[in-house]
Design goal:
Length: 416
């Protein structure tokens, strides 16, 4: 068994940046809708005394006008009486939209201001300078979703669930996660000090991290002993399927007898990419189901032409496997194509629409429109996928440069 290079493989190639998990293609499975789409047309709007939406389910035009009377009263009070004038009306408007989405109680439905929306559109394949972690911007504090393998964040010991409560000594309480990210991003080679609150730790503690810059590959491969091919899928980006097929063709030329697919710490990505990548290992059948508020469902089926649909397979997962990773792992598990080895996955089982507002300069909204289910109807949101073989990776294992989860996968494939 190799040393730590097998623990997460190809460390030198992996990412060293922060990406917005809940504001980027990673961690959220989303779709974009133009301002003129049917989705955009169905969004709630503010009703002024001089405008209404006839036929709206919320009530008659008169009822809607009456409903928003307190809003406009509060607006006028601020404009007329607030001590510091003039008041920024755009900031008030954005705050009102944000409050409306906050009232839904859904951390994945929210308003994105123009800066946040611009950052949300950064392609996954671009280069960045940062610490190398998928993060969740929707929690009370910016929360580490998973450190990227081989990144400064991983080297510094950051873990899924760690909360960033201060950056360089500045308290982040009440600061939007997107703004916290801007403080963490910085020039490669520079130092950032994060104050971390971690479950199980009595007191917060500081972590110093040297930022770096590198491109993020989607896929790495290697031939292990005993004729086993190892395939690590790092993210589900726009070009991941193409990259995966190229890597599979290369490794299959070596005639492996079995294959391990590593989805650990894969924060997810695009839904369509999840279906495409899963199809490389699943010959036929349903990959996932989308379930809408009225109870109807939509099936996403495996595409034909997969390159590795017959080879014996084991999939590695952990608490950092989320969203698109869970779609793939759930499909392979449900079809009994491959057992899952590792720990319970993150539990991100909803789908969002991202809809630019009619005035492009005002950002966009993202709203949960569906839940996704595994092919056998399992809802994993906030519970995650349960591995067929639970194997914890302990601190002792890491210090000993031993990957017990990978060892278990090899054991299942070889019988040794």
């Amino acid at each position: 068994m190799r040393s730590k290079d097998l623990l997460y493989l190809s460390i030198a190639l992996l990412a060293v940046l922060i990406l917005v998990s809940a504001c980027s293609a990673g961690f959220i499975i989303g779709r974009f809708a133009s301002g003129g789409s049917s989705q955009a047309a169905s969004l709630p709007v503010l009703i002024t005394p001089s405008s209404s939406r006839s036929g709206d389910q919320a009530g008659t035009p008169y009822e809607l006008t009456s409903l928003f009377t307190p809003f406009w009263e509060a607006w006028d009070i601020i404009q007329d009486q607030y001590i510091d004038q003039p008041v920024d009306s755009e900031a008030l408007m954005r705050g009102a939209i944000k409050g409306m989405f906050d009232s839904l109680g859904d951390q994945h439905s929210s308003y994105m201001d123009p800066d946040q929306f611009q950052q949300a559109n950064i392609p996954l394949e671009q280069e960045y300078e940062g610490i190398g972690a998928w993060v969740d911007t929707t929690a009370e504090y910016l929360t580490i979703f998973s450190p990227m393998p081989g990144s400064p964040a991983e080297s510094a010991g950051l873990r899924p669930g760690d909360k960033v409560i201060a950056v360089d000594g500045e308290d982040m309480t009440g600061i939007d996660g997107s703004l916290v990210i801007r403080r963490i991003l910085g020039e490669a080679g520079s130092l950032v000090r994060l104050t971390i609150a971690r479950d199980g730790e009595a007191e917060p503690f500081d972590v110093e991290i040297i930022r770096a810059r590198i491109s993020i590959p989607s896929v790495t491969t290697e031939m292990l002993d005993d004729g086993i091919a190892y395939v690590q899928i790092i993210q589900f980006a726009e070009n991941t399927r193409t990259e995966l097929r190229e890597k599979l063709q290369e490794v299959l030329k070596q005639e492996p007898v079995a294959m391990i697919v590593d989805l650990r710490n894969n924060g997810g990505g695009y839904l369509t990419t999840a279906v495409e990548v899963t199809s490389e290992f699943l010959g036929e059948g349903i990959v996932l189901l989308e379930e809408y508020g009225d109870g109807t469902q939509k099936e996403f089926k495996a595409l034909s032409g997969g390159l590795a649909t017959e080879i014996p397979l084991v999939v590695l997962v952990n608490e950092g496997s989320a969203s698109a990773s869970e779609i793939m792992a759930g499909a392979l598990q449900a079809h009994q194509r491959a057992p899952l080895v590792g720990t319970t996955t993150f539990g991100k089982g909803t789908v969002q629409n991202w809809i630019p507002l009619s005035r492009g300069a005002e950002g966009a909204v993202r709203i949960t429109v569906a839940r996704w289910l595994t092919p056998d109807g399992l809802q994993i949101h906030e519970t995650g996928l349960q591995p067929d073989f639970v194997v914890e990776l302990t601190e002792e294992d890491i210090h000993a440069e031993r990957d017990t989860q990978l060892e278990k996968a090899i054991e299942l494939l070889t019988g040794n």
